[in-house]
Amino acid sequence: MHPKINIFFYTAYVDIALCDCPYGQGGRFCKHLCAVQERFSLVLNTSPLLHSEDRIILAKLALGNEASVDFYMDMDVSTIITNSNSDNSTQNNEQSINIPMNVDEATSVETQQIRFTEGPSDPLHIREATNLKSNFIRISEIALKNPNSDLTKVMHKINLTLGQLTTATQVQSYLCQMQIRNQYSYNRGRQIGVQPTSKSRRKIRPGLTSGAKRIQSGRPSKNESKQLTKKERHLAANINKNTPNAKSH
Q1: Is 214 left (phi over 0), alpha (psi -120 to 50) or beta?
Q2: Where are the domains of the chain?
């Protein structure tokens, strides 16, 4: 404290985000730390995270009464102001002008005035969803009329998969996989039949391995060690031994 001007001086420790003022001694984020953070463009560990409600309050403090309530809402969410009559609308406007002191009051006022609703449903989406429902009902009726053990197993697996779908994204992914599999099977049947390649005609011979065969690691087995030795291309020795095909060419 300065003896003549009655000004208190506090020390802000930036490395540990602590201030020795009465408010910041317990580790809270005081106004002195906020001033240091804004002045020197720092990011302290104890700085609070701003939510959407906090940003709305800051925007109201900056703009005042010039902007309407719809201005502070998200652009991708349609908002409807619930006003029952003219008296209630004027009262709601007066409440929106008064800036609340804390975040709880701000959220309560916003929830009273604004109701978030999803946009109008697409008629094409409704029609396709209805057709999908009717197709599932038709398939279930066919399955009920034709009991089969194999069909029962398939339905059990499909029901387990469908039971795990809880969001629209999961449903979309599952339907896309069904479409890809159906398209692949349809295109596969329309492919032109060709003769097998020369590699598929080759017979497996001892000592000849394919490129896709797994190479064993470690000590080789007895079967792999018994490889056929090639015939020595020694023309004089082959003639003396009366070996057929003694020529080297």
Answers
A1: beta
A2: 1-48, 52-116, 123-185
Report pLDDT for 117.
39
What is the C-alpha separation between 42 and 36, in angstroms, rounded? 8
pLDDT attached to residue 113: 43
pLDDT tens-digit readout, 49-88: 777 787 788 888 888 777 777 777 776 654 444 444 445 5
Q: What percent of the chain has pLDDT over 90?
A: 4
Mean pLDDT across 3-19 = 79
Phi, psi of 91 (to 5 degrees): -65, -40
Distance CA 69, CA 63 (A): 12
Whole-angstrom distance between the N-terminal and C-terminal Cα of the chain? 109
Tell me if residue 33 falls in helix, strand or coil. helix
Taking alpha carbons only, the member of 104, 99, 48, 101 closest to residue 72 is 99
Name the one residue in this structure whose structure tokens are 């709880």: 104
153: which residues sit within 8 A by CB, 6+ positions away? Answer: none
What percent of the chain is helix, strand and coil (3-state, nearest 5)? 50, 5, 45
Distances in Å between the Cα of 139 and the Cα atoms of 55, 134, 142 are: 52, 9, 5
Beta strands 114-116 and 79-81 are antiparallel
